[in-house]
């Protein structure tokens, strides 16, 4: 069953993805994962392979994400607010395949998906 049609696209071109849709995106589209929480939050647990760039540092650290300008990028925070702001900023910088994890890491954990600690 294809879940791509279930993804909802906002007016800004940002796609909201449920945790299950995010897993498909990561596995099939090899999406990058951007965690915009603070480093202390990230250290408590994160999605494996996620890049941690806190929202407060995102603009200054944009060069670290250049390889994702035209590739799928799943953006998340703890609950979805900061990642929405990050997606808006990234859209203004011509990132074209943004996916916002609906409900953030809270939803990911509630779906019983794995988190890792470094």
TrEMBL record:
InterPro entries attached to this UniProt entry: GlpE_sulfurtransferase, Rhodanese-like_dom, Rhodanese-like_dom_sf
Domain Rhodanese as annotated: residue spans: 33-117
Name of this protein: Rhodanese-like domain-containing protein
Organism name: Pseudomethylobacillus aquaticus
